[in-house]
Amino acid sequence: GERHEGYLSEIDGSFEPFLRYLPDQPPPARGYPLLVYLHGYAPDLNSVNGSHLPEELADIAGEMGFAIVNPFGRSNTDFQGVGEQDVMRVIDEMASRYSIDPDRIILAGHSMGGMGVWTIGAHYPERFAALVVVAARGDYYHWREVDRDTLPSYKRVLVDTEFVPAFMLPNLARLPVLVSHGSLDNIVP
After folding, report:
1. Could you read off the pLDDT of 16-62 as tens digits, one per residue?
2. CB of 134 closer than 8 Å to CB of 177
3. What is the pTM of this model?
4. Three-state SS for 18?
5. Vertex 157, ends 151 and 158: CA angle to 5°?
6. How far apart are CA 175 and CA 184, in angstroms?
7. Pairing between strand 15-21 and 2-8?
8. Distance (Å, rounded) from C-alpha 54 to C-alpha 58?
9. First vs last C-alpha separation in the chain
10. Which of 105, 133, 135, 139 reaches 20 to 30 Å from 124, CA-CA?
11. Which are the contacts of 26, defined by CB distance < 8 A and separation ≥ 6?
C-alpha cells in the first residue's frame, strides 16, 4: 500500500519526503517495475501538506504489480536544480529499500511534473525505460515564443540549463515517449 517515507538530503540537511506505493504481491524475480510520478504545481503544497497519488493509478498498480513513487521535489521547483536532484535521489532510495527492476523505471508527470519529465528524461535518458508527459510544456523558446538568439548569453545559459530546449531531443532518440495534451489547455497551449 501507500506509505510516506523520506531521507535526509546531503545538499542542505533537510528531510525530504516522498510517497510510495507497493503492491500486495511479492516482487517478481527481477524486482517491481517502478513508476516515478511527478506532481503538478500546487500553491499550498509543502512538506507537511504533501501530494497524493490518484486513486485509479494505485488501483492499476495493484492489479498489474508495479510500484509507484511520488517525489516531493522540494514542492514547486519545476523539478529542476535541487528538485531534479531530489527525484534522482528518491529513485535511488526506492532501489536500495525495495526490490526494483532498474530496467523498468518509467518517469511520468502532468503539468509542472510533465515539464520535470522532459528535463530529467533528457538529462538521464539511460535511467528510464520510457517517459509519459501529460499537459506540459517542453521547449522554453517555443512555449514562450522567444528567439533564442535574441536573449543575452547569460539568459541563454540559464534557460538551456533549466529547461529542455529542442536541441536536447537527440538524448531521447532511443527512449519511448508518450505525450498527451488537450487542445483546451489555456496555461500551456
Report:
1. 999 999 999 999 999 999 999 999 888 888 777 777 788 899 999 99
2. no
3. 0.91
4. strand
5. 90
6. 28
7. antiparallel
8. 7
9. 36
10. 135
11. none
- Cell numbers representing residue 164 in the block: 529542455
| Cβ burial, residue 120 (10 Å; 0-12/13-18/19+) | buried
23 close to 31: Cβ distance less than 8 angstroms: no
What is the rounded (10 degree) CA torsion for 130, 4, 11, 105?
Answer: -10
Cα dihedral: 146, 148, 153, 156 (round 10): 80
Q: What kind and span of H or E run contains 90?
A: helix 82-97
Contact 87, 79 (CB under 8 A): yes
Number of residues that this document lists for the chain: 189
